Amino acid sequence: MAQREELIISIRGLYLHHNCRGPRANQASLMNPPLMGELAVNNWTVYDGPGADAKLVARAQGLHINAGNWHNSFSLVFEDGRFKGSTLQVMGVVVEHGEWAIVGGTGELAMATGIIYKRFHEHNQDGNVMELTIQGFCPRRFNKDPPSEVLHRTHKIGTWGGHGGSPKDIVEPPKRLESITVKSGVVIDSITFTYIDETGKKHTAGPWGGSGGSPYKIQLAVSEFVKEISGTYGTFDGATVITSLKIISNVRTFGPWSTEIGTPFSVPVQKGSGIVGFFARAGKYLDSIGVHVRHV
Q1: What is the DSSP letter of 107?
Q2: According to its UniProt record, where is this protein mainly located (predicted)?
């Protein structure tokens, strides 16, 4: 008999370059309005940031058809990172603010469903740049006795927060969190944690962030695991940073630390899984945070 669990898809900080070659865009479309039923083909590029040093991570390849508005039907084809070779099947209309529907997927994202939220970022000589936030789920099927390499696979979810600081991550695949230390003042200054890898070796990561704030240490019991983190992020000292943080285990709640102001976020994990590590961006403060998730 098969068991089913859901893989949470949560990807922020993607920027789609929507060029003017098709469908017709901006002032040109006002002078030459498209005809009903007109077709256009896209091959938009998607980067992991808005700057010139951003990395190409995916392409949006597909069709437009004009039916009073330009309707998209395309594949978001990932070319870099964990989802390389996987696709999301996407449909919706071309608007600067709004949503596209995820109606399927392949590879790691097989049978995905969800929403891609899009927001206008800027206009340049090539067209519009849209900020994307992907939220969705895809079912995963396992046999009654799943292979250990499938159950023990670690997934990354996030990040939430700003784009400042420098990227922080762990090298060895985590198996279990042992302790977490959060330093906070007006905002979250830093995070440090210890974890056990798949070989049983203990590692310490961090501190990621600055040296300010008061420390709050969580020592997890042997049978205790983190099932959710939540918090807020907003502007402080000229940058977007994590402004508050709360950690929930299967037996206790820790925090929230600092002041819950700004945009809220919440990262619950599915039953049978736990948060076993973190990754982030950090500088003077904790700019953003994401999680490593694993079957527990």
Answers
A1: G
A2: secreted
